[in-house]
Amino acid sequence: MIWWRPRLRVLFVCTANVCRSPLAEALLRHRLRALGLQRRVAVASAGTRVGQPGRPPDPRLRKLALEAGFTLGRIRARQLTPAMLAENDHVLVMEPVHLEELAALCAGSDQLAKARLLGDCESSLTPAAAAIPDPYFSDWQGFCAVYERIEAALDLLVSNLLVELDTQA
Asked: How far is it, in rounded angstroms, from Cα 81 to Cα 160?
């Protein structure tokens, strides 16, 4: 539960909410803490098809985060809801199929306008290459590759959030 009013809210979305979106959530929180912005930007994650609500992130992800110098905290898998879409300023998904699932979830509303692929934050990528693949059935190298993609995408996202926070001040 958040005890302050953040200026911005960011939601990361993947399929089961046990690999990509928890990693993006934890890494963005880590970066925001380093910048002293943890109270100005709220960060969360959810899944479009969560099979086990309440499940902690994949253990390989915990190891990867620790090696990178941060923790996943108390992140647990949770199902995406229309209310989550409504309360967030930025909704960042991992694959185009997630945009389709969001469109079905929020049919008839304008909530989809704030959703985009996280990989679009990597300016050098074509739209087809912007999808961040699910590493769940992958090996350690697959998890490392996804970490690198998310880290690169967050570089531009953080810059954009800083600009947005400055314009709100």
From this structure: 25
20 is annotated as an active-site residue = yes
Q: What's the DSSP call for residue 79?
A: B
Up-side HSE of residue 40: CA atoms within 13 Å toward CB? 16
Catalytic residue among 7, 76, 89, 134: 134
Catalytic residue among 19, 20, 40, 121: 20
Query: C-alpha angle 12/30/50, rounded to 5°?
Result: 30
- Kindly report, residue by residue over 2-50, the tens digit of the pLDDT: 566 899 999 999 999 999 999 999 999 999 999 999 999 999 999 999 9
- Are 122 and 130 a contacting pair, CB within 8 Å? yes
Active site (annotated) includes residue 14: yes
Name the pTM for this structure.
Answer: 0.93
Nearest residue to 12 (alpha-carbon basis) of 48, 36, 55, 64: 48
Distance CA 21, CA 136 (A): 12
What six digits make up the tokens of 112? 């989809």
